[in-house]
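Hi U.,

Before I forget, here's the chain from the pilot set. I'm dumping it here mostly so it's searchable later in email.
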Amino acid sequence: MFVPVTAAEFHFQARDMKWVMNPRISAVLHHRGRPAACIICIPDLNPFLHRIKSRIGLVTPWHFLRHRSTNRRCMLIFSGVIPELEGQGVNPVVLRRVMLAMRDAGYVTCGNTWIADVNGPSLAQKEKAGANPMHRLHLFRKTL
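Structure:
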């Protein structure tokens, strides 16, 4: 049921990301003139959201600027490779480039969004990169 995202849809969904993106810690690999792999990371916003109690107020800009200057943790929110390059070592190369960029940008830790228990390749890659699992992802369904 996957339908490719158009450029207009992507820009609509991603337009607000510009406020939190740090372009130094994300990467797109091009192969034969088109995007072939991508890793998107953002600074970890959870401490900022906790500090403002997830409410926008008069002091929110101050807290945001303070967070940007002191935050040392980022979050990997998306990683993907086009199907014809899967299993060929492309994602580890892009991940290494992003991890080195994270270090150079002053980050000391990186978290990852949920990875499904059935996604063996992604779980193995994170383990090879030295990441420690924090939680398991449990998905449930019920036929109605």
